[in-house]
Amino acid sequence: MYLVYADEKGNVYDHPGLFAVARNGDILTEVLEEELIPLPEGSTLVSLPDTVPIGMNPDTGEMVKLDGCTAVGALVPQGITRLLLPGYVKSNRDSKLPLFGYSAVVWKDNRFWVAGRASDDIYKWDPLNFPMDELRQRVEKTLELFPQNRILNHLSHCALEYECLTASNNFFNRWEGSLPVSYTCNAGCYGCISEQPEDSGFPSPQTRMNFKPTEDELVEVMLHHLQTPESIISFGQGCEGEPSTMASIIVPAMRRVRETTDMGFININTNAGLTDHIKGIVDAGLDLMRVSIISAIDEHYNAYYRPRNYTLENVARSAEYAASKGVYTSINYLCFPGVFDREEEMEAMINFIRRTGIKLIQMRNLNIDPESYLSMIPKAQGEVFGMKQAIEIYQEELPDVIIGSFTHIPPEQLQRRKNMA
Questions:
Q1: CA distance 368 to 366
Q2: What is the pLDDT of residue 232?
């Protein structure tokens, strides 16, 4: 397994004499065969600015810096959980990598491989199923049908410019579609992809919505999308703040929709900090809820989310309430090699999942500059198992909990919807 690196022009090479080295958190480590999968279709190789790649001399085991070059990482499709970070050191300590999830990549058997694990079926999230020419036509037709709907106009930008697959589904009328609703948030996430302070050093890769939609606009989007048993409409997108802050329009919109149709599923992606608001949304007919979380340890959670007037205990109570009312609950677990697999992190999260009745762990690669993230969270206290072993421990400790990457529909609920269709 040979080192992959880039020259100053961004050309990618494999090194003929140095073995690949990766990182688990801030620990340099060899890459094991069992941690590799062929580079998935839809992946992108990127050079990491202001970094120096590190390889290993196969004869001596010595770590070698490859000066004059930059490290290379892979950006893998959704549904692939990265197991290791690229092996590098910063050439400029003050430089921050753009907000993406970088995976270790190596050269072996005349092809690229990545340190990763397929966590879910990626068919519905395969970019090949979203042909751009057809999408443009569908966007045009949908906007002709709803020329005054600002949400759909906003989503057309997300679909065509950012190539957001969830937004694209609104125009293909299938699967899980977006319904952004909030321009405000009750958290100040360190790695927020839609809003960063000017002095953060992180450029936001996308723009947050800048208007408050009306109840009528929400109803229009929901009824347009909820036309098949498998359709899902989802509040809480990367282009918005916290959706539950807009419970005052979400609740009546949901009730109006459910007076008209029982088709499809209503989902919310939320930090779940506003427990009273979440209760109202649940009681209005919510089907699915995905709670965004990075840790079940208060100090770590607070360092990343920087919650405003809520605590991790509020999050737990919201999840408990939703589960008690029959909502299919999951966590959107922001995973980072060398942190997710810490003993104390795993113990706390397993207890959180057992307490709250979570049914599904959606594994999501944390998009962050590794050095910035590691410097702000608590240091490891116990053993660090490695991502592969950590996932196996979760499977053993929580045998009834699904480990995936995407929103799942409970089979029995889907069958009921099909019977009603």
A1: 6
A2: 98
Closest CA to 4 of 76, 107, 115, 90: 107
Domains detected in the chain: 2-118 (no CATH), 123-414 (3.20.20.70)
Q: Residue 209 — pLDDT band, cuts 50, 70, 90?
A: confident
pLDDT tens, 266-298?
999 999 999 999 999 999 999 999 999 999 999
> How do residues 139-184 score in pLDDT, each as one tens digit?
999 999 999 999 999 999 999 998 999 999 999 999 999 999 998 8
Q: Secondary structure of the chain in the HEC alphabet?
A: CEEEEECCCCCEEEEEEEEEEEEECCEEEECCHHHEEECCCCCEEEECCCEEEEEECCCCCCEEECCCCEEEEEECCCCEEECCEECEEECCCCCCCCCCCCEEEEEECCEEEEEEEECCCCHHHCHHHCCHHHHHHHHHHHHHHCCCCHHHHHHHHHHHCCCCHHHHHHHHCCCEEECCCCCCCCECCCCCCCCCCCCCCCCCCCCCCCCCCCHHHHHHHHHHHCCCCCCEEEECCCCCCCHHHHHHHHHHHHHHHHHHCCCCEEEEEECCCCHHHHHHHHHCCCCEEEEEECCCCHHHHHHHHCECCCCHHHHHHHHHHHHHCCCEEEEEEEECCCCCCEHHHHHHHHHHHHHHCCCEEEEEECCCCHHHHHHHCCCCCCCECCHHHHHHHHHHHCCCCEEECCCCCCHHHHHHHHHHC
Give dist(CA 371, CA 357) in Å, integer.
34
